[in-house]
Amino acid sequence: MAGPGRKPASLKVVSGTQRKDREQAAIVDLPILSEAPPAPDWLPNSHAVKEWDRLARILTANKILTEGGLSALGMLCALHGKIVQLYAAGEAPTASMAGTLRNMENDFGLTPVAQGKVKPVGETDKGNKFKGNGHRTA
Q: What is this structure's pTM?
């Protein structure tokens, strides 16, 4: 019986388990957005639009938002807007909604733990600054 299959390279980057010695062929290179695009008109409420405006500026400034990530950002903002509406009405979101929002925020590197795992597009690893310096440790 076959196993679960390989983890996609993009998930390895996000989770911090990517290794140079196990890199595969080149990944899809999506165009980076240099300016924050306007919020899509399908966002459900003003809370979602405000979140789009806030996050789109942050993500473009850090070279994280690409053309391919726009719909995912829209879904994140729509879910955020719905959760804010629930809280404003004195209700709480379901655990599934809260967990999904947290996972989407992690995908964009928007939580403290995820910040170190998501790198701006085009940034390369500088490598080990101590490698090859001639010093040995005991």
A: 0.69
